[in-house]
Every structure is written in structure tokens, then in C-alpha cells.
């Protein structure tokens, strides 16, 4: 079992704020995400800037695309995104069209989805899923727990590389000990920390501690 990647999610509403933050953490993380909030506020210009600043990092456009997959993914790819997200309720044709345009497509899991849907994503050639606790659900009192572990494990067993995200703190990571998580995606716990670089380093250190000895 490998040590998971660390992905920083930039969810600022302004590009200048996102760039100020990423310059503190970009070199510390494995993957850089133009978050949904940033994509909606600033468009693919955000992805272009991240690509220009970090030519050797994986850049993700977290568009959570629901339709017009080929066009949206084409725009993301032209801007320099390696990977892009689609929402799990998008149709298979939308996902397939999007997947043609980027190196990898990730299905974002929100709300109601089934393992039968997940089989169809695999059949369509999509093998990355993002298991998400919604920001609003967490604010409404939802927490990470056994039910999430069960679903993440099942998706891993099915053959997905599973990223995990939603209000993750360094302290949340222990819950996933022994689970083959592909990537932890952290936004605010890094970007809103007093010292984002230290926060990213501590998270990586905790990942090494938890997953370093895992077989
Ligand atoms: C929200 C997102 C966020 O980018 C993701 O959840 C990480 O942010 P945070 O750690 O701040 O919750 O996709 O839709």
C-alpha cells in the first residue's frame, strides 16, 4: 500500500488570493487543484495560472461538470489541466466525452449514487473517484465515520483509485489507517492556516506516519 498523495484544494473566490496561497504550499503537495469555487469565480484562467507556475505538478480542474463534458474538459485541458472532475449524476455519455479530453477524469461522489453506477463508470474507463463529504453537510453536523470507510473500501475493492475530501484535518487521517486511499484532498485546513506551508508539511508527515509502514 503506497503513501497517499496530498492534494491542496484552492477554493478562494479570487485568483489573486488563490495565487498568494499556492505560492506558499505548491511545492509541498503532490497535486494542485483549482477548486470549484475558484473555477466558478475566475474560470479557466485559474488553471492557466497554476499550470504556468507549476509545470511539473498534476493540476486538477474541479469543475464538477454535469453536462457538455467534451466542451468543458476541452477548455480545462487547453488551460493546462491534467485531470478534471465530473459530478456522479452526470450521464455516461457526458463522462465519456469529458474523458476523451483530459489525461484522467475523476467522478465526484455526492448525494445518491450506487455501486451499480460505479460499475458503469469503470466500464466507461473511469477509474478515479473522489469520495466527498459536502462542506454544507459537514457544517450541518455530518461527520466522517465508519459508513464512509465502508464505502471507500468497497470502491477500492472494485478497482477505483479513491481520493477522499471534505473538511479534512490532520486528525481525520488516522480514521483511514489501513485503507488504500489514493489521495487526501485538503482545502481550508491548509489554505486558511496561519502557516499553510507548515500545515501541508504536517499533513504529509502524518500520512507518512500512518501509511508509511502499511503493507
Ligand atoms: C468543495 C470541494 C473542496 O475543494 C474540498 O472539499 C476540499 O476543501 P475543504 O478541505 O476546505 O473541505 O471540492 O466542493
Automatic annotation (TrEMBL):
This is 3-hexulose-6-phosphate synthase. It comes from the Bacteria. Residues 5-203 form the Orotidine 5'-phosphate decarboxylase domain. GO terms for molecular function: 3-dehydro-L-gulonate-6-phosphate decarboxylase activity; hexulose-6-phosphate synthase activity; orotidine-5'-phosphate decarboxylase activity. It catalyses: D-ribulose 5-phosphate + formaldehyde = D-arabino-hex-3-ulose 6-phosphate. Transmembrane segments: none annotated. PANTHER family: 3-KETO-L-GULONATE-6-PHOSPHATE DECARBOXYLASE SGBH-RELATED. CDD domains: KGPDC_HPS. Its EC number is 4.1.2.43. It is an enzyme of class 4 (lyase). One of its GO terms (biological process) is one-carbon metabolic process. Pathway: One-carbon metabolism; formaldehyde assimilation via RuMP pathway; D-fructose 6-phosphate from D-ribulose 5-phosphate and formaldehyde: step 1/2. InterPro entries: Aldolase_TIM (IPR013785), HPS/KGPDC (IPR041710), OMPdeCOase_dom (IPR001754), RibuloseP-bd_barrel (IPR011060). Keywords: Carbohydrate metabolism, Lyase, One-carbon metabolism. Belongs to the HPS/KGPDC family. HPS subfamily.
